[in-house]
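Input sequence (164 aa), recorded before submission:
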Amino acid sequence: MVMTSQLTASAANAVLRVPPAAPAAAAAYFGASLAFHADVSDVAAALAADGDPGFVVLDSRSTASWDQGHVPGAIHLPTALIAEQARDLLDPAVPVVTYCWGPGCNGATRAALALAELGYRVKEMLGGFEYWVREGFEFETWEGRARRAADALTAPVDSDDCGC
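Predicted structure, token format:
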């Protein structure tokens, strides 16, 4: 009896109209997601730590976009040039983290696909350059290094750790 009323209430709710996946399926999905994606804050922390982070960062945008601003230490390789130049710029034994403008752009996804098809291990940095800047991390432009204050909607203002 309780189950029937819960199902009726769930059917009226847009969130639960399609029920959540079984825990095992959810664990598989979210585990796979973490294998394909890296968070901006995690990338920044790994790059700031002493020693080799174990990956390289690749900016897949145009030269004009790169000049406007990019992650310090990133490799610039526009997606259209990956097939031609990746082997000259990237070590196939080192994982690559791709990024583009931000969440509204799938350039990093296309770059990750191109690299994976060449045999590289790759992750996409969620949020791209937009969230790198919005979270207050230093970036480079054609004029030099810059930094903006962290956006309180994307990063903790008074802490380096968001707790997630």
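Checked by second reader. The mean pLDDT is 91.
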